[in-house]
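Q: I'm building a small set of examples for a reading group on sequence design. Run inverse folding on the following structure and report the sequence directly after it, with nothing in between.
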């Protein structure tokens, strides 16, 4: 959806509040099982001496699957927004702003992009999640599993490969 910024652009010092629900269907990540409700982006667009800036927050509550231990957990995301808006690409070397289409802002595109960039990180049930034992698959958050300590999971893969080769010959 587009927001027309004609009046805001005409009046330096003015501002325009916004509140948009994002489409949960368009924010489909493998690590997210379910959103509590559609994520909401809200804030204000200000015209400061002719320079347009959008400030606000996207809030989302969701059920996620931990990248390390595969446990389900609940996460609340609060993504700060601060984006300069430009009516034309003034400086191609510095595309650090969101381009308007004429005087229309595609706010859904802006909010979705900000959300997707923020989700581009590992989803962990907690920062120090110990993950699963590469040998027996036990959840190491529940305590040590009793397997011999594996120095490097990559070596375990190599060992498995060597075993396979032995079986082939
Ligand atoms: Zn975890
Ligand atoms: Zn183990």
């Amino acid at each position: 959806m587009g927001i027309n910024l004609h009046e805001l652009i005409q009046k330096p010092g003015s501002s325009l509040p916004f509140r948009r629900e994002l489409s949960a269907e368009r924010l489909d990540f493998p690590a997210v099982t379910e959103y509590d409700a559609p994520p909401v982006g809200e804030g204000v667009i200000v015209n400061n001496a002719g320079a347009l800036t959008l400030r606000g927050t996207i809030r989302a509550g969701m059920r996620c699957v931990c990248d390390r231990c595969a446990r389900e957990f609940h996460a609340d995301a609060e993504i700060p927004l601060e984006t300069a808006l430009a009516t034309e690409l003034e400086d191609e070397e510095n595309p650090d702003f969101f381009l308007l289409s004429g005087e229309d802002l595609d706010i859904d595109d802006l909010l979705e992009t900000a959300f997707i960039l923020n989700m581009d990180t590992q989803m962990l049930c907690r920062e120090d999640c110990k993950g699963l034992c590469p040998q027996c698959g036990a959840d190491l958050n529940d305590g040590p599993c009793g397997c011999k300590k594996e120095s490097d999971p990559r070596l375990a893969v190599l060992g498995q490969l060597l075993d396979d080769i032995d079986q082939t010959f």
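The CA atoms of residues 53 and 155 lie 51 Å apart.
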